[in-house]
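To whoever picks this up:

The nightly regression suite flagged DUF2794 domain-containing protein as changed. Nothing in the input moved, so I suspect the structure step. Input below, exactly as stored in the fixture:
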Amino acid sequence: MSAHSGNKRHRDNLIVLAERRPLQSSGIANTIIASTGNPTPAAQVTFDRKELNAILNLYSFRVADGEWRDYAIDHLPDRAVFSVYRKASERALFAIVKDPKLARKQGAYSVIADTGKVLKRGHELRQVLKVFDRRLKLVE
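Regenerated output under the current build:
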């Protein structure tokens, strides 16, 4: 097999998704192509704006109380994790996890303690974050 026939086969595997059109400012032809060979890697799981707003609202109150001092956000292929730290040099006190694969089962959201114990799990983030609500104690 020659190199030329390999290139032809590669070109045959490409699908043109858009017509050739000149760009408005430059006059250069623009072609969008996609390969049918390898699938694209899965996108990362992220927290959306409403989810981050709810988490950071809770975080700000705990920082104001002096309980939490630092955080980290990890966007992984299978889940998103918001980790809370007392000090930056320590391991995380809690992890707030969004795992879409569990959305139809136990719920996509969970709060996990530093010991690995799941403190609360559910379908709605605001309900799961209620695990951090302070309980009033009777003082005599």
